[in-house]
Amino acid sequence: MKCISIPFNEEKLAALKMFMEQKGRNVTDDIAEYADSLYIKYVPANVREYIGNRENNKLKRTSKSVNSTDEDQSRKGLEK
Fold this sequence. Notes:
Blueprint: H1 10-22, H2 27-42, H3 45-79
């Protein structure tokens, strides 16, 4: 995941955080939700699907390597 930064007046940001916290909201979470809505609005569905499939494949590969490492460690423990 990539982080982005945007210029914004410090006093305005402090006020925004204060009033959002009073309502149980978080600036970062709301901006992330808005960025997601922009992504859905402007990126074609077939491109979003392609990116989603790539992310799922990465997760599967990561989980397989974690599982195989756990299995290797389990086997080593049994061999002792």
